[in-house]
Amino acid sequence: MNQRPSTIYLNYAALCPPRPEVEQEMARTLAELGQRLYSEAGVHWYRQCLKDSRRTVAEAFHIPDSATIAFTANASLAHYLALSAIHWQPGDVLVTSTHENPSIIRQLHTLTRRGVKVMDVHPITPSHLLTALESLASAHPIKAVVMSHVSHVDGRLFPISDISALARANGFLFLVDGAQAAGHIPVDVDQLGCDSYFFPGHKWCRGPLGTGVLIVSDQFCEVAPGIQMPQSDLSDPRASLFEVGTQNIGLIAGLARACALAQESVQAQQEPMESRRSLVATRLHRESTVEIMEWEGPHAPGIVTFRSRRPVETRHLASTLEAEWGIVVKAFPKPSSAWSHSTFRLSWLDTTPTEELLWALDHICAVIAQMSS
């Protein structure tokens, strides 16, 4: 590859552009709304659109009952609503992992002011994670576990079905953040068996910004009655308890279309995305200046995270890559329990040209070597 591309975008795990079909669906829906407005027929049409959108999302992610689906503005709000529905008492224990999104972690730790003990598990291997959860469940009155389906840090894939079985055996709620999974890997919510699953539209589903999905099981609604929002109609879906007021039907229709398209393509995209992951990993393993973050378990195919063996200022390096070479990556800020200094994440689609990936890797490694020398 001799000529520099205008931009090589390698941060799809943060934000994916909407598919053209999604934008078309949004425009079509809003145009029809403009014609119908809020007449009696328009109200019926609006409600039917919501109902159809729930059914579409349910089909895409194998959700047995579309009435368990609520539409939200994003995954963080979905998590907040689900967490707020639980009746927390001093002494309750909430368990999470060190690989959760910062917005999720901030919400979890607000519970400490109410006397809730938040405990973190570092996922070294799948078996270690399960053993740690089993030990905590036998020693503490766990009320809920909140964990990602796919780590936003490095794409490690957590054993969600096994944790769901552990939750049922020990009587705690299990909430799953699917932000890095939905649209990225095949997701069957019914088989996962968790009490709540939530994800945004703007990541791997390639839907519109300002959209999200919250799925709550019947059991969750029974044991987590904290949200007391009036339903407009007794025939409203149970999950509509988590929805307030009139929804942006254009965004929701676009989200539903995105979910349907994601479901259609997700299986076929696994092999090309995995081949790119193998290509990236092989290239980085040859580089003495960097080290890949991995665990002894499965990974999602569209993410690789690595760190410089010598300290470099992550944001300065990321801005240099973008300004001088048009390469966009995720630079993690100050170190945490999940990552050390100088950590970067790359993410791609199945359509990302391999020659662009290799070109970008050459320049990323060169800039790291220059800055760490």
Could you write a compact summary of the structure shown?
The protein has helices at residues 20-36, 40-60, 75-85, 102-109, 126-139, 160-170, 189-192, 218-223, 249-285, 314-325, 354-372; strands at 8-9, 69-72, 93-97, 117-121, 142-148, 173-177, 196-200, 212-216, 290-293, 303-308, 327-328, 330-331, 343-347.
Structural class: alpha/beta
- Total number of helices: 11
Instruction: Please tell me the total number of domains.
Output: 2
CATH superfamily of the largest domain: Type I PLP-dependent aspartate aminotransferase-like (Major domain)
What value does the average pLDDT take? 92
- Largest sheet report: 7 strands, mixed
CATH topology of the largest domain: Aspartate Aminotransferase, domain 2
> CATH first level of the largest domain: which class?
Alpha Beta
Annotated CATH architecture of the largest domain: 3-Layer(aba) Sandwich
Task: Provide the low-confidence segments as ranges.
Answer: none
Question: How far is it from the N-terminal to the C-terminal residue, by CA?
Answer: 27 Å
Radius of gyration: 21 Å
